[in-house]
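Fold this sequence, please.
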Amino acid sequence: MADEKIDHTHPLFLHPSNTPSSVLIPIQLTRSENYGLWHKMMRIALQAKRKLREIAMISQGADSVDSYFTRLKEMWSEYDALVPTPGCDCAKSKDYTEHLHHQRLLQFLSGLNETYEQERRQILMKTFEPTLNQAYALIIEDESQRSSPYPALGVRRDPIAMQAG
């Protein structure tokens, strides 16, 4: 066991210089004022250490949609505690909040398994953008129909196909 070599290219490899107290970048994030610069520098630092991929994407994996959504909400809650949204009623604050909600919707949808590809497309093609909770409800509905013991009852029918049939 002592003769085993550790693959330094493995994404979970920790180099001796990867310590919790080491400073990756010289800039400290101060809310939204310097987010752009901080984000670029942090991204470069994580790419250099081959760690960006491990933190960039949370996906459903083998979890249920409910478990996956819960993990995302916990992560977003932690983020909101660290970087609170602006508290004013100004236009920029509203734009920021709308953008944040849009990004979270896209993050949720992009992390779903391939089995939800059709539902993802349908949600993204809607003429109005659903809220995150609406998209979650649509996906949960589809998941429950897929796991129904009576698959014929859970299949969605196309109204035009029903008329033609």
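Residues 91-110 form the longest helix (20 residues). The two ends are 66 Å apart (CA to CA).
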